[in-house]
Amino acid sequence: MADWETVTIIRKKPQKASAMKTEQAVNRARREGVPIDTQQKWGGGQNKQHVATKNTAKLDRETEELKHEKIPLELGKIIQQGRQSKGWSQKDFATRCNEKPQVVNDYEAGRGIPNQAILSKMERVLGVKLRGKDMGSPLAPPGKN
């Protein structure tokens, strides 16, 4: 016959890591007295791979009126002419450079903060030199100097 004295305990599965991050789970842990360690990720969920060339805190500490360095308007015109000669829109060009269309727009309008990595990508895609003394000239093929 059946043993009526046997007790079966069904345990819940442990929570997943994502479920432990909810506000409800954190509050429950606080009530239970469990030590909680919270950290905020820097730049989490944002496309912040390119840092500005000048430190903004350093600019804030200065008493003078300082501004970030901007892309020269001539460089913006060279980028625009190179892009238009290939028949690309700003969005097409940004996709080929793996950048946001707003970045291309800022660079062409002379509002962008110069970043050598972005300029290098644009040079390779356009095939036009964007840095140095011979800006606007065709870029030499790789391996030839």
From TrEMBL:
InterPro entries: Cro/C1-type_HTH (IPR001387), Lambda_DNA-bd_dom_sf (IPR010982), MBF1_N (IPR013729). Residues 37-53 have a biased composition (Polar residues). It comes from the Eukaryota. Keywords: DNA-binding, Transcription, Transcription regulation. Residues 79-133 form the HTH cro/C1-type domain. PROSITE patterns: HTH_CROC1 (PS50943). This is Multiprotein bridging factor. PANTHER family: ENDOTHELIAL DIFFERENTIATION-RELATED FACTOR 1 (PTHR10245:SF15), ENDOTHELIAL DIFFERENTIATION-RELATED FACTOR 1 MULTIPROTEIN BRIDGING FACTOR 1 (PTHR10245). It comes from Nesidiocoris tenuis. Residues 15-53 are annotated as: Disordered. It holds the Pfam family HTH_3.
